[in-house]
Amino acid sequence: MSKSAKTLVVLLVSAVIGWTAGCARPAPKAPAVDVAGMDRAIRPGDDFYGYANGGWMKATVIPPDRAVYGSFTLIEEEVTRRTADLIQAAGKAKAPEGSAAALVGAYYDAWMNEEAIEKRGLEPLKSDLDAIAGITDAASLARVLGAGLRADVDSLNNTNFHTSRPFGLWVSPDFAHPEKNVGYLLQGGLGMPDRDNYLDTDAKSVELQQKYRAHIVALLKLAGIADAETRGGRIYDLERKIAAVHGSRADSLDVLKANNPWPLPEFAKRAPGLDWEAYFAAAGLSKQPMLMVWHPSATTGIAALAAKEPLGVWKDYLTFHAINRASPLLPKSFAEEAFRFYGTALYGQEKPRDRWKRAVGAASGDLGDAVGQLYVEKYFPPSSKAQAEAMVENIKAAFGRRIDALTWMSPATREKAKAKVATLYVGVGYPDHWRSYAGLEIRRDDALGNAQRSELFDYHWSLAKLGQPGDKHEWWMTPQTVNALNLPLQNAMNFPAAILNPPFFFPGGDPVRSYGAVGTVIGHEISHSFDDQGAQFDADGRLANWWTPEDLAHFKEVAARLVAQYDAYEPLPGLHVNGKLTLSENIADVAGVAASYDGYRSAYPKAPELDGFSGDQRFFIGFGQAWRSKERPEALRSQLITDGHTPGQFRADAVRNSDAWYTAFDVKPGQKLYLAPEARIKVW
Ligand SMILES: [Zn+2]
pTM here? Predict the structure, then answer.
């Protein structure tokens, strides 16, 4: 999870959040827990997720337009509906030219105008396709590749490692000098999510490979390109070669492997094959003294392929990807073909989401701050911000006390950890400053052009940050995103307004449930600053390990036991959770429960019983219910391979590492989730 915000005064506010109060909203008071969603015939000690969510699991059917359905999607639906209302209202009100509302309104209208999209056919792609057709030699290939570079990856904050362009750029504070921004260059070039999708040889993977190949051919045929079968085969083979030189997901997550400052003139020597001079000139990067190369062997490998593979194959490959990326905004036949592969084959989705929902999602992505501004004005009142900020302060303080109480950490390391807590910036709701879109052209009749210009605008915005001081308060997630984020290079985090909604956050409702549901998420994000990745970044955000070898040895020993705990979970027959891939997230879940529990106990030491549940029971049920989620097998499979997060059902089981959970539900030896006290993992 990822998001960020700011610190504040806490005590006064938490006094206002009492459960008796007719405080805040006139809306009906949220129940203490969702009793109907539970299955109380299940013993919590056998299956805590089932106990908290059995009723909901039985009653819930994944909508046909969804691959996954749970708390996050529930909120997302609500936020999308609200946002659509705002956008449509803005359109009707004739918002002033250039205002956030006017931009968003025009963007949305263009997206919804299927007739115009149908009529224009492939015409909006013409200049891109012409540039590709004009490639005649290595230098022109490099120019087209460089001109296509976008800021479409984010390796540490959103951990988005995927781009279908051969490389992706991320602009963020420098590992060694957090006081200034540098460019990070990441591997890319694949149409499927991960190298493993190409290289795995099990039956399911082979089937997906065949479907992807067929998708390439189908799209080429729709575009009227001759010899689609032959060309499609070559395009697939080139991608497979790119996949073979890619670093693995685990490599990507290892920052020590990513700390490779390459001076620009060195690229030709270290990664021969691509005309880097032409590439950087076209990408607007020539003046940079260096770039941080996140995936050195992939960079070398892809550059070598630029020289080794015939130009004709590269041209076909680039043509396919230009069309493929644009397909949601091309005529219906293209959009439907793309959905057949990316929606159904890859994620098991039966039908696309309603067009208006996708339009809102696209506007939210391309004009994030403009949409965010509209959203928080209406749906995130100062009272909600204050309540959430109070919770953040309590949990931060609790985390500090837990550090004081650690027996395994050396005093020197402890001091550094405390310094890191002290300078942590936690952003709640929305950023201090909104981003300007001045200069971005949004046309009411050009959906694809709007999307492309937005991407390019964002790229130039990122380039403009290069060499500038890093901004500790910069947000990396929009307020309308249902998620939260840790920002290691800024020693900061973001908690967008949208996650501060039920079933995570209950403004004016039982605060204990909010601590269980979203407080644990806040604790989760805070702990990322101190986990195996966070330990590598100091209080200023510098990549500098602040642990002694003894601290690290202890941590690794505990971490290995947690890897084993999660490796044992088997969400699909024969397919287990990858305890190593998900380790950071699992540590954060365990730590988040611990810190939020302490925060709740210090704020409400005498929480009364409500609806028959004690405070501790409501805290843990709130946690279990926040992770309710149903996934289609295809989506679950994809998540298990590529995602650093454990599936929701198993995240709920993090409670078995908390002593208070055993007391709250009288969990006994012999029950399935029971762990002997010494087997419970306590990292923080
Ligand atoms: Zn996380």
Answer: 0.84
